[in-house]
UniProtKB/TrEMBL annotation:
Residues 159-237 form the Signal transduction histidine kinase internal region domain. Keywords: Membrane, Transmembrane, Transmembrane helix. This is 2TM domain-containing protein. The lineage of its organism: Bacteria, Pseudomonadati, Bacteroidota, Flavobacteriia, Flavobacteriales. It comes from Chryseobacterium paridis. The chain crosses the membrane at residues 7-24, 30-51, 72-97, 117-136, 370-391, 397-419.
Amino acid sequence: MKRKSIIVLLWVAIGTALFFFLFFTEDKTIDNFMLSFLISSLYSFVLGIGNGVINDYLNKKIPWSQATTRRAIISVVSILIANIILVYVCNYINFVIFQKAATSEEFFSGKYNATNWFMVNIALLISAFLHARGFMEELKKTSKKEVVEQKLIAKSANAQFETLKNQLDPHFLFNSLNVLSSLIDENPKQAQKFTSSMSKIYRYVLEQKDKELVTVEDEIEFAKTYCELLKTRFEDSVDFVFDVRKEDYRKYVVPLSLQLLLENCIKHNFATSSKPLLIRIFSENDDLCIENNLQVREQIKESAGIGLANIVQRYSLLTKRNVFIEKSEDYFKVKLPVLSDKPNDVSIKPEDHDKAYKKAQKRVKEIKGFYANLTSYCIIIPFLIFINLYTQNNYHWFWWPMLGWGVGVASHAFQVFGVGEPWKERKIQEIMNKQKNKDNGNF
């Protein structure tokens, strides 16, 4: 146990000793106070340290955050068994050894059953409160840890995504200038036309580079414009075929993915009038495919692979669906997943912040209300038991408020932590997530 917990137990022992010494001890002497303090310390430290050791051990072996239900069951069983044993040990030491009020035979004969049962109930109530407090502390730590981890993941993913998108500008500009440089010598008029068209294309690049996803329709229109520029340079050496389903036009792909793949087709394959390079862009199942006949060009310098790697990494940040690459002796094909919605396009409005804040406030108020109820129960019920046993031993009326209020506390606990509105919200969210995953799997 921590040093702070030991100090708390010491103060509890001192407070309990003073209480019983001042109100229930007729002969107020130093010896009686020391005996009262010794007995209070016995119960405080044995019960406190015993429950603390059990709680610490269970926290290491079965944390609340990993197996809540299993931990709750094991906690109930362990504290029930441990507190019965600890209370009997404390009572035996108190009545038989310290006060010498009974012999061992009398203690185990049943004479002290009521006292033992009374102390067991008090110990269980206090232990339940301490374990509940431990659960809340663990819950807070886990929640904070998850929030920090999610923020770090979000920042890392965002930084990685921005880095990937920033590769597009120099990559596109470098390849376009190469084409323009070739055209200036071969066909100045076409070079001028190419420059005008390139400015339009680059405007699209600047408009789309900050977006995570764009519609298939926008990407196809851009690709057609880019293909016209390639056709200007290569003429009959390159042919393009577009066969994309109209129903796919309103779906989404990664921006500039087609342009990068078209560049790869030109870069890695030779194209002549006698052996033209045929590039097809078409729909296949739930993918947008870019396929070209394989006419591999000998590479003087090994390719850096920026274009295709860029697309693969950007898709990995947006969806679990993969980019597939097929290669045979005759063709090379890349399959881009077509997404029905924008997974990461989440905009939080100010009113949503207010709703979330009010919801969080309500949740905190519910939890505080439950622990106020539990604390009152742990304080008042032992007091009622003490009054009942002190004033009237024949009729134990304390069972009625203890059981009635106990059922209320248990119901309150289930409502706050398990079977109330939060449970309904969790089930609704769980069903929505399953449906969303199912929809994603049916793209």
